[in-house]
Amino acid sequence: MTIVQTAPARHRAPERRAVPPLIRIATARDAPALYVLSAPFMRSGELRPRTLADYRTGATEFLLVAAPGKPAGCVALRRAAPAPDHPAAGIVHNLCVDPARQGSGLGAQLVAAVLARAEDLGLRTLYTASTGSAVLFLRAGFQEVPAALAPPAWAAALDPARSSRVYRHELPAPPGPPLPRAGMTIGI
Description:
Blueprint: E1 22-25, H1 31-44, H2 52-57, E2 62-66, E3 73-79, E4 89-97, H3 106-120, E5 125-130, H4 135-139, E6 143-145, H5 152-157, E7 165-170
Parallel strand pairs: 4-5
Antiparallel strand pairs: 1-2, 2-3, 3-4, 5-7, 6-7
């Protein structure tokens, strides 16, 4: 009989799974942190310049990635000014992720969250503009379009000196009532 000696069992620490970040709607109290997060991107020209007052006024348009001490990322969504060809359009802007957290998937999670928020708000088409590669938007289904196809008031406010490209995303139609079937009687 051969005796095989085995090493004593070791206590294994439970595997740590990545916890999805908490993405929430910002409040006016978050405005200073949103401004600080966005400031380096404004200085580099990646974001349009905005004041702290702009962030306070539009704070509830923002979704932010909550992190200890300061937000790790943010994106804003607002309704476009009503126009006949754009009755339920939204504008996505100010997407940024703390440089220390870039490459971690937070940007993609923010884009997914803003798409879900747009659906919740009943928006059908989203527009954004970018001076960069817009890779996160393209991966999420946005397509580059001529600025002339965007909501007129927003397109007119784009700064031509920035050479931004415009992108559009069509959201799925909300589920409606079932379509009548052959032989079915509806509303008499």
